[in-house]
Amino acid sequence: xxxxxxxxxxxxxxxxxxxxxxxxxxxxxxxxxxxxxxxxxxxxxxxxxxxxxxxxxxxxxxxxxxxxx
Length: 69
Description:
Elements: H1 2-7, H2 12-43, H3 49-68
């Protein structure tokens, strides 16, 4: 990681933003997959409504972010 900051040729703020964005998106994917695994393990069926709920939650966060900053 230190090599990317020193030799990467990009602004250090951008590299940090890329890393944080990647970690946050990976966290969202992990939460979705854990939810699907938990529901499938307990009920034995795949709950496709989780994708719709995730989409609705992401739109809600987007609108809140654009309205309130």
